[in-house]
Amino acid sequence: MSTRATTAAGLVVRTVPIDLDSLPADGDLMALLPADAPVSWVRQGEGLVGWGVAAVVRTSGPTRFSDAAKWWAELVARMEIHDQLREPGTGPICFGTFGFADEPGDSVLVLPRIVVGRRGPHAWVTTVDHPSPELVAAETPTPPVVTFADGSRNGEEWMAVVAEAVARINRGDLEKVVLARDLLATAETDIDVRWPLRRLAQDYPMCWTFHVDGMFGATPEMLVRRERGLVTSRVLAGTIRRTGDDERDLALAAALARSSKDLEEHEYAVRSVAEALEPHCSGMNVPEIPFVLHLPNVMHLATDVAGVVHDAPHTAESVSSLRLAEALHPSAAVGGTPTPAAVALISEIEGMERSRYAGPVGWMDASGDGEWGIALRSGEVAGNAVRLFAGCGIVGDSAPEAELAESQAKFVPVRDALS
Predict the structure, then answer these.
(1) Given 3.40.50.720, 3.40.366.10, 3.30.460.80, 3.60.120.10, which CATH number is that of 2-418?
(2) Which residues are catalytic, by number?
(3) What is the pLDDT of residues 279-291, one digit of tens each?
């Protein structure tokens, strides 16, 4: 475990309402982002964007979540907070991205200097030791010219790994494992992450477009949301690629909903989420039958699990959204079943450092309310390079060629956003 924190002294936090008219003409929050440490969590034009760094902590190892949560609680306790709205997402907001594995588990939690939020008819700006900014559209970032290359394994090598996983499953070692692969994109100059963020927000409005400390993407999967005691989690497992033909896609959606392989994979994932939330929640609702979520490039089996957190008090010491995210990670949707055996197999045969791919990413406010997604359909930018990630759930009757095609479909959002 390690913790490295940087905090400005004497934090005064102010949240004030603003008119929707003060936002860019089309309401595009992404258009506000300058190049100064931008962060985002946006879906259908609503959410949060921020920039600047008032405080940051970097944690690692098995205690990365609890170390970050402790730092946030202590930081909030020392703040002078003036919040005119007192709604989820107002007041001080931290954005975080966490490592998938315990080792190294490198993770980040950051408090931006400025956050702009929008929800329904309401909009606001939060500042930390900073005058209220003039909200104007930033300069349009320059799209990169990139070349792509295989990451840790090429397609043939990855299919061999999938075949090995299928053999282990059919031998009875485990029921399911999620295997990921990466793709490398390189540009001649440093990549401005605001370009792919804008593209992703436009092309995938039903997903949560995120960026924290170089980790960005458009995730369709809400790991957990906590809002005034209500806890929800969206589970996605079971995927089929869209063809672009509406009639054909409807037939494929029906086939997906009947697929024993995909339904089995989905059931594992739902079960893992329900079991992880149960100790923290009461009155849980776990639907018996999934629905089909339609995205521009793929369709998923989806289930929304809901519950009420045990501790009703709305305080930072209660079961926070980050604590719930820790309890849920890794779910069967990104690890496998049984999870310990699946994570061990990932470490043994995947042959790739996941970094923060498939880890929790999102935000939390001073009360512990927040939203944490899973860093899927994502990439990690560093200078002129981006690592793109994609993963597939492997069960006993998985076909390596089909899983490779599914992984290629999952690369599409970030690959197109960069190109």
Answers:
(1) 3.60.120.10
(2) 176, 221
(3) 998 888 999 999 9
